[in-house]
Specification:
By secondary structure, this protein is mostly helical. The chain is built from eight helices and four strands; from the N terminus they run H-E-E-H-H-H-E-E-H-H-H-H. It has one domain. The strands form two sheets. Strands 1-2 form a two-stranded antiparallel ribbon. A hairpin with a 3-residue loop joins strand 3 and strand 4.
Amino acid sequence: MMGGHHAISGTAAWMALFGSAEISGHALGVNALSLDGPQVLAGAIVTTGAALLPDVDHPSATIARSAGAASKSITSAIGAITGHRGATHTLLSALVFTTVTALVAGAGWSVSVPLLGDVQVGAVVVVTLMCVFATRALKVVDGSLLPWLVGAGAGIVVAAAAPTVAIWLPLSVGLGVCVHLAGDLLTTESLPFPTWPLVMRPPRDTASPLWHEDGNVALPILGNAGSGREWALCAALSGYALLALGATAFESTDAVMASL
């Protein structure tokens, strides 16, 4: 699946699971964590960026272009070790990304920011990175510096809500990674066997497009990455995500105005 499609899939998944906005009495999400509007919007940003994390093994991916030569070198090195759609495209990697996020966000490092008070540094770092990935993948802003300025601003504002950040931040990263894996699973390129690094291979001469000879698995409903079916699916997800985000932003603004 293409980078921008991974990103919008992450947005849609977050809003479906944790959004709470309604239109004409119809809920647009199942409100699984009972988050308030700003937390839902912040989680959507993080999940959008986190849905690109598994492609840290690809030197041409959005992540590789996020910090110039440094990020390209890192992704090239990881890709050389794992190969594309290798270790970073596994359920184990989802657990690792989620755990690292929880540790960083919950480390307790804080700085005092005028008007905002104490801000959790770990949360700022995570949200900033995810926002940079999201804005680049969706082409919200251009240039090499502006995505980082937008990301840093979002990180500081979101992290000012700590410690409540700890409730949803690791979950949003884990969800984004899992959505990425699901998207790639639906294409022909396949993913490592779900129990990786313990891999089961099909019996001799029984390999198929669903279970490859090397143990990789696929459910290629979308065909090749970038197919017309993929574009159609992501067009629908984009429409839903924009509707849910807009409704959530409207309800949040309305609630703030009512409290004044």
